Amino acid sequence: MSIHGADSEVGRLETVLLHRPGNELKRLTPRNNDKLLFDGIPWVARAQEEHDGFAQALRDRGVEVLYLTELLTETLANPDARNHAITTALAGLHLGDTLRGYLARFLRDAAPEELTGYLTAGIRNDEVRGGFGLVTSLLASDDFLIDPLPNLLFTRDSSVWVRDRVAVTSLAMPARSRETQLTELIYTEHPRFRGTRKIHGWQHEHVEGGDVLLMAPGVIAVGVGERTTPAGVERFARQVFHEGLAHTVLAVPIAQERATMHLDTVCTMVDVDKIVMYPAVADTLTAYAVTPDRDGDGALSVAGAEPFLVAAAKAMEIDTLHQIDTGLDPVTAEREQWDDGNNTLAIAPRVAVAYERNVETNARLEESGIEVVRIAGSELGSGRGGPRCMSCPVVRTPLT
Ligand SMILES: NC(=[NH2+])NCCC[C@H](N)C(=O)O
User: Fold this and answer.
1) Which of 141, 186, 270, 291 is 20 to 30 Å from 125 at the Cα level?
2) Domain 13-67+151-396 belongs to what architecture?
3) Is CATH 1.10.3720.10 what the domain over 71-146 is classified as, yes or no?
4) 13-67+151-396 and 71-146 share one CATH topology?
5) Domain range list for the chain
């Protein structure tokens, strides 16, 4: 039995995986930020300060904070893990054999901490010395040989714990696909996680952690839109049923737009029966309840679409899933939704971390009896992610 895991969004948070923003953010320029999924160019030192404030707020509440780069460096002390990391990072078809061979030798000589730096911040063509060949001569000096991973900050998306299993996800955007090679390596080779049973995997259909909400023990909502695909939720549902991790998966179609890239950009749980939600979608959001077919042959039974809150309450076996609205008026709601007002991280039932800037939404949460732990996020927010996106709960006290 793994000592790690989570069966809800709101059980007391004991351990969380974060990524302190680092040099990968310094790779962002006005020419590449769109492709790298940032809306602006963050001031990195300030983003780090804000992130340290976030981590401290969690520690002050007794949460153990793990950092992705520390786990990665510890993992890379193992020679097999190093070789694996290097081979997968250099597998891209843009390199060619000469440059690939050169980079492999270069990376093999790097100390674990340096290797973590290259794997996260990437390598530009003009940063390599030697190894000259046709490819490096023809590529532009600012082309990346290994892409930087500025979205590592959003640890929510690259893995998700479902009870005592970890799902290594499969990220849809090319700028992020390499992130899950790193989470897979950590969960496979890091001594703390060795033996953890995994589901899904980056080789499979797209499922991103931001779309996966553990509504209650046994009930998982999965957004289907810009990131998670219909085929992704189908495989995910089949696996969680097969492993006995859930009895119902709610497949929730969301608009395929940047503002609503993940289900957790429009709603997050703040109590066992309370959800903060963007009012503009609240009435139209639907869910298809998926359950295992009775024959137990892996087939899925899919109910017709129902209003999301109704389908969720039914599956959770509660009378009502209470909705708390983002913002006051439609314009404030739209602004605060964009600034991740819905993207709260519950650290216990009725206690949630939120960006301080979403003044109206936070006031509403408090009116509804939710304690709000406010954090600064002016720079962190430029990647379009809030406290929930920036955290992967590794241990929560089970609700059952
Ligand atoms: N769970 C989330 N909402 N994550 C936000 C991810 C933001 C990131 N820039 C992306 O576009 O992928």
Assistant:
1) 186
2) 5-stranded Propeller (3.75)
3) no
4) no
5) 13-67+151-396, 71-146
Element (H, E) at 336: helix 330-338
108 vs 114: CA distance, rounded Å: 10
Q: Is 392 a catalytic residue?
A: no
**CA 56 to ligand 1 center in whole angstroms:** 22
pLDDT by residue for the chain (400 residues), tens only, comes to 469 999 999 999 999 999 999 999 999 999 999 999 999 999 999 999 999 999 999 999 999 999 999 999 999 999 999 999 999 999 999 999 999 999 999 999 999 999 999 999 999 999 987 667 899 999 999 999 999 999 999 999 999 999 999 999 999 999 999 999 999 999 999 999 999 999 999 999 999 999 999 999 999 999 999 999 999 999 999 999 999 999 999 999 998 888 889 999 999 999 999 999 999 898 899 999 999 998 777 899 999 999 999 999 999 999 999 999 988 889 998 998 888 889 999 999 999 999 999 999 999 999 999 999 999 999 999 999 999 999 999 999 999 7
- The binding-site residues of ligand 1, defined as CB within 6 angstroms of any ligand atom, are 37, 151, 154, 156-157, 173, 176, 210, 261-262, 264-265, 383-385, 389
Task: Count the neighbouring beta carbons within 10 Å of the beta carbon of residue 29.
Answer: 10
Cα three-residue angle 358-61-156, rounded to 5 degrees: 60
